[in-house]
Amino acid sequence: MKNPTLNWNLSCTYQALPPVFYSQAEPADFPKPETVLFNTALARDLGLLADAAIDPQEAAQVFSGNRFPPHAQPIAQAYAGHQFGHFTRLGDGRALLLGEQTTTGGARIDIQLKGSGPTPYSRRGDGKAALAPMLREYLISEAMHALGIPTTRSLAVVTTGEMIRRERLLPGAVLTRTAQSHLRVGTFEFAAATGDVANIRALADYALQRHFPEVLAENPANPYPALLQAVITRQAALLARWQQVGFIHGVMNTDNMSIPGLTIDYGPCAFMDAYDPATVFSSIDRDGRYRYENQPPIAQWNLARLAEALLPLLDADEKNAIDIANAELRQFAPLFNQYYQQGMARKLGIFEPQEGDADLLNELLQRMQAKAADYSNTFVRLTLDMLDADGAYLDGTHALFADPAFAQWHTRWQARLAEQAQSRADIAALMQAHTPFLIPRNHRVEAALSAAEAGDMQPFNTLLAALQQPFDYRAEPHWQRLPDAPQPGYQTFCGT
User: Which residues are noted in the entry as Mg(2+)-binding (predicted)?
Assistant: First the structure.
């Protein structure tokens, strides 16, 4: 077999950490892997492809783990985490880090196989993955990337040629995931749990060198408080973006909180339909711990666990270290509120938020909740109003827009916009930039995954292509841009 036609430039800096942070592991040998998806655009960004296309058979061998790229050193990473508030030691139970691809621009990107077989951290599991969850992660992560939200990304999905047993027999698959790194809050919790401050320092220094070199340069004597501050800032910005698009992660355990500030691990996640702050999208979250409205407080709780792990590095005096940690943690809420209010103001066409704008937004959200209005479609319809376009067909908005009390709110909103110097066209452009027309509706995702399990990838590919392409709000009629909605009044992805 000839070598893969990919321009690998792998190194393995993670192995410079103490050996306690990882274990050597080998992927399973899969009988008949086949390439289902290959992200050509991402491959080019990573420097893996120039102009030539990858041979699907070669890709299947590499991205199943049957063949390693040059210089790969597969390891499973160790970490811990608070899962639904309870601490446990974890690790990559079904994932292998092959190494880090250095792009032509000098970025260092993890290449990880997910579902490649058991590792020392598998805890009696088979370490394998079914096709549908791997396709879900590919779809949602690429949709998040298209929305401009920091996220891990998906390079490939291959089927493995074998069936795996869950509640029923399912086709097996491996996802190739890329990330700035897979460092997590749980990685620092693991370091602290070893009881060796040298391990915490080694991990913190690695995070600084890889993700926050400017922090290290500006604080050479003691960079660790600034490291905590940097992670808090990135998480505040990330959570604000989630809330602005109605994204619910579903399982915000500390092992699912990324140090570089990425959305990571797409399990029972979804975008909210009818606006309800108590919305939960995980069947195992029976108490609503990770409901939509609780995501920012949970992020702060998770960051407190990071601060606890870093205490020995913040200051030699424990009381001073706790004071430093608490001072940094207190910055999360105001930072989140700043980012959130700015983003939501832009969804309403407000360039420079002023006192009273938060009340305008909160009143809208309250009316949306009272009328069970669709979250995304409401903001789409407001945007279409600014374009003098017909948005009446958007599902889930009819009761809200017919409400006389909403008409009064609408008048106040228009009066607020009229105070700005910007033109109506400029306001509409601002709203469009912060209001996605297409989102991966959960029922559409599930339908596409069911078809894929039955061997039909066309619905999935149609959905993926629609989510990855910019949507022109000025297109008339709008529904003609939606692949399976030939008639007015039927919304493929925005509606129900």
Answer: 256, 265
Q: Provide the pLDDT for residue 54.
A: 81
Residues taking part in catalysis: 255
Q: Which residues sit in the known binding site for ATP?
A: 91, 93-94, 114, 126-127, 177, 184, 265
Residue 242 to residue 265: CA distance in whole angstroms? 14
Binding-site residues, in ranges, read 91, 93-94, 114, 126-127, 177, 184, 256, 265
312-321 burial, b at 16+ Cβ within 10 Å, e below that, comes to bbbbeeeeeb
Q: Please report, rounded to a whole number, the percentage of residues in the chain having pLDDT higher than 90.
A: 86
What string of DSSP letters covers 40-106? HHHHHHTTS-SSSPPPHHHHHHHHHTSSPPTT---EEE--EEEETTEEEE---SSEEEEEEEEPTTS
For residues 112-136, average pLDDT: 95
d(C-alpha 66, C-alpha 330), whole Å:
48
Contact 232, 303 (CB under 8 A): yes
pLDDT of 480 reads 41
Determine if residue 198 is left, alpha or beta; phi over 0 gives left, psi from -120 to 50 gives alpha, anything else beta: alpha
Arithmetic mean of pLDDT, 316-320 = 97
* CA–CA separation, 348 and 328 (whole Å): 31
CA 370 – CA 377 distance, rounded (Å): 15
Distances (CA, A) of 116 to 76, 177, 384, 494: 11, 12, 46, 35
pLDDT at site 475:
59
Say which DSSP state 38 is in. E
Residues contacting 90, CB < 8 A, separation 6+: 78, 79, 80, 81, 121, 186, 190, 255
Please calculate the CA angle 149-242-291 and round it to the nearest 5 degrees. 150
pLDDT in tens, 264-310: 999 999 999 999 999 998 888 989 999 999 999 999 999 999 999 99
Residue partners of 323: CB distance under 8 A and separation at least 6: none
The pTM (predicted TM-score) of the whole model is 0.94
Domain boundaries, the chain: 10-183, 186-263+288-346, 350-433
Residues belonging to the binding site for Mg(2+) are: 256, 265
Q: What is the pLDDT of residues 211-260, one digit of tens each?
A: 999 999 999 999 999 999 999 999 999 999 999 999 999 999 999 999 99
Mean pLDDT (whole number) for 169-190: 98
